[in-house]
Write a structure and sequence with these properties.
Chain lengths: 470, 289
């Protein structure tokens, strides 16, 4: 069952609400109805599944804040229904409504909405206080949640003694402490400065991995929406114009408005390794002899080969020097020559932004594997940089600058996932990206850099031929 | 009744008088009750303040000042009240304090609920506003007359006139204070399932308290400014002394009684202002960063 199910929700402010709804249903524009009332939400239908982060994105005045307030009944929809775990919140009496808010839905506010006269601990315990949890227990539970959000030891302070980011952590702790299944976040990170915001987003994702709340997140920041949202609803002038995953929004915008909106999104956080990888040509199976490997190297004009087992499971790589020596010594298999140290694996679902740090520190291309560890592609550093540069003619040059600015944040994501060991600063990446010898290293496994290769098809056939020859 | 539009004459005053007379007979029980209650409150407070030896009272006033504010105010208080005794105005000063305190407590008890209601219900606000304007702009002397006609002379009409005159800022500032509580914080209370009463008690009132205290302070100051008028309707105290001094052109008494009013005013003002700084919100905001 969906946790939240909204169907044909209208919210109109004004004297003649029903009249406005009727005219809107008949196809009138809301700009022509301002005399009768202001239509804040028009015909919104969506459902949010358990454990999902559903982001509602739109500019100010698009109705997103009104929409989130209809979900917990702070505003009553003019028409339409909003079902919370099956029961319609608009039809509840005051008592049931309060019980639902207390036990099923909690909320995080844009400007934190903490009680300034209470300590941080008492603030975090507010939801529990409403649930009539005994004082000692709720203070203890509040402390636990404060620890979880990284505010352990701050319980005795007052909100005004905390920085903005910390205050919002209190807001988050208060909402989490209520232990409701549904969490509404109204522009929760918008009032924070960008670095703190990024930190909070990452923390939210991290918490979500263990808590699996049903989250409705309101934002006007597309990057935030793309980063957090399992699905995103784009709102404009009170209407939901598109609902989809971030990739759908990005690649198949429903109309020009969405297309224009997503134009300057930071694609590194949306595109995945799988979407930029190339076919691995310089690959041999581990049971071949050194001479076959050598032949493949010559064909591919590379200095090292990735090695897989018979089921395409990635084992490591072999280098030309070792292979030549083995061939001279007449060894039968290349298996003893396999090195695993320098092979960096990334999952096909890893966001592009997490690839920069490994790519910068690695002398060979990144190996992209699927969930079963099978090699499905490689990403040479040139390809990575080229993807960034050619991110679509509509984005122009600005996104490239944006992207290099985002590199730093990208590493952070990466660090959290534990995939990359090296933490290079954006300057390092920029410096390392260009030199020729690095390009040479990249070529070692994939053949000529894309664009330089004159006959990709013949390369592919060459590989096949060699594999057949085994 | 004949009405000549060229020589208009409308007996509004007579009409109001009739209404008051009618009210007097219809509500005689209520009026009697109010008079009894105010007499009782005033009488017992006056007895409490005026009976002990003046040094004990000075010590108590100073202690209150110390607790509310600090030792500086306590010292000033002690000197001020000692001076009042030295001017031989101790009893009238205590009577004035009793009158002002009873009037203020009643005014505040009426003003805060009305203010809260006005903040919550638009209709109440729309009705209360012009009434408050009327209460404040009507010259105090003018409504002393009907008050005397209902309650006769003495302490009680003085107290009632003081309540009417001093109440408006209490209502206004309470309404303002509740309204200006951050809307998002109130929403937070609702979002976590709090009842309206719980939101009022745990969110709105604590956050509104500094402004409400400023209103209470205003109420007390206005009440003190009414003591002279209260004296005119026969209330005992410094007001009565000043009225007496005025009628006899007794300059020394007038100056001394006026000075005593100022001392009492400063004391009550500083103590209530200091109490305003001790609300939970003010204390929380004072916590060092």
């Amino acid at each position: 069952m969906s946790h939240i199910e909204a169907s044909h929700v209208y919210k109109v402010f004004g004297k003649r609400e029903q009249e406005v709804v009727k005219r809107l249903e008949a196809g009138a524009d809301r700009k022509d109805l301002t005399q009768l009332g202001t239509a804040a939400v028009i015909d919104a239908s969506f459902s949010v599944e358990p454990g999902e982060i559903f982001v509602v994105m739109g500019l100010s005045g698009s109705g997103k804040s009104t929409l989130i307030r209809t979900i917990n009944g702070l505003w009553k929809p003019t028409t339409g229904s909003i079902k919370i775990m099956g029961s319609d919140i608009a039809k509840m009496d005051a008592r049931t409504l309060r019980a639902t808010r207390r036990d099923k839905i909690s909320m995080v506010f844009q400007h934190f909405a903490l009680l300034p006269h209470r300590t941080v601990r008492e603030n975090a315990a507010y939801g529990l206080e409403m649930q009539k949890v005994p004082k000692a227990e709720r203070m203890e539970r509040a402390d636990t949640w404060l620890d979880t959000v990284g505010l352990g030891g701050w319980g005795d302070k007052y909100p005004h003694q905390l920085s903005g980011g910390m205050r919002q952590r209190v807001g988050l702790a208060r909402a989490l402490a209520a232990e409701t299944d549904i969490l509404l976040m109204d522009e929760a990170f918008s009032a924070l400065d960008p670095l703190i915001r990024r930190e909070m987003q990452e923390q939210l994702i991290e918490l979500q991995e263990t808590l699996s709340k049903t989250i409705v997140f309101i934002t006007h920041d597309l990057n935030e929406a793309m980063f957090l949202g399992d699905r995103i609803a784009v709102m404009r002038d009170g209407r939901i114009v598109q609902i989809g995953t971030s990739e759908e929004i990005l690649t198949e915008p429903a109309n020009d408005y969405v297309a224009q909106f997503v134009q300057d999104v930071d694609r590194t956080r949306v595109l995945t390794a799988g979407s930029v990888m190339e076919r691995p040509n310089a690959v041999v199976q581990s049971n071949v002899g050194p001479r076959v490997a050598l032949h493949t190297m010559q064909e591919q004009k590379v200095a090292a080969l990735l090695v897989t087992d018979r089921h395409r499971k990635l084992l490591g790589l072999v280098r030309d020097r070792q292979v030549v020596r083995a061939a001279r010594e007449g060894q039968k298999s290349i298996t003893p020559l396999i090195e695993t140290k320098d092979v960096l694996r990334v999952n096909e679902n890893d966001p592009l932004s997490s690839l920069f740090a490994p790519a910068s520190s690695s002398i060979v291309p990144l190996a992209v594997t699927d969930d079963k560890e099978r090699l499905i592609g490689v990403i040479p550093r040139v390809a990575l940089l080229q993807t960034m540069a050619s991110i679509g003619p509509d984005t122009g040059e600005i996104p490239v600058i944006d992207d290099s600015g985002e590199l730093h944040a990208g590493e952070k994501v990466n660090g959290d996932h534990g995939a990359g060991q090296a933490q290079a600063s954006p300057q390092d990446l920029a410096a390392e990206a260009v030199p020729q010898e690095d390009l040479g290293a990249d070529e070692s496994l994939t053949g000529p850099a894309p664009g330089l290769e004159d006959d990709a098809a013949s390369d592919a056939t060459a590989t096949e031929r060699k594999e057949d020859g085994l | 009744m004949n009405f000549d539009p060229l020589n208009p004459r409308f007996p509004l005053g007579d009409f109001v008088h009739e209404v008051i007379r009618w009210l007097q007979s219809a509500l005689s029980g209520l009026i009697g009750g109010v008079r009894w209650l105010l007499d009782l409150l005033y009488g017992s407070l006056e007895y409490t303040l005026a009976t002990p030896i003046f040094l004990i009272m000075i010590a108590i006033f100073a202690a209150v000042a110390w607790l509310a504010s600090g030792w500086k105010l306590a010292v000033v208080t002690a000197i001020g009240f000692y001076l009042i005794r030295a001017l031989d105005l101790w009893l009238p000063a205590m009577q004035t304090m009793a009158l002002v305190l009873v009037a203020c407590v009643m005014a505040i008890l009426l003003a805060i609920p009305v203010g809260i209601l006005a903040a919550k219900v638009r209709a109440v606000s729309l009705v209360v506003k012009p009434v408050l304007d009327f209460m404040q702009s009507m010259p105090a002397l003018a409504y002393l007359v009907p008050v005397i006609s209902v309650f006769s002379i003495g302490q009680v009409p003085g107290i009632i006139a003081t309540i009417i005159f001093a109440m408006p800022p209490g209502v206004r500032l309470t309404e303002l204070a509740i309204r200006q509580v951050d809307h998002e914080v109130v929403e937070a209370g609702q979002a976590f399932g709090a009842t309206a009463w719980s939101i009022l008690r745990k969110i709105q009132l604590p956050l509104a308290m500094p402004t409400i205290m400023a209103g209470i302070n205003q109420v007390i100051m206005l009440a003190l400014s009414m003591v002279v008028l209260a004296g005119m309707v026969g209330a005992q105290g410094l007001g009565g002394e000043i009225v007496g001094a005025l009628s006899r052109v007794n300059v020394p008494l007038g100056v001394e009684a006026g000075l005593a009013v100022v001392i009492v005013a400063v004391y009550l003002d500083r103590v209530t202002a200091a109490l305003g700084h001790r609300s939970p919100l003010a204390r929380a905001l004072k916590a060092s960063t």
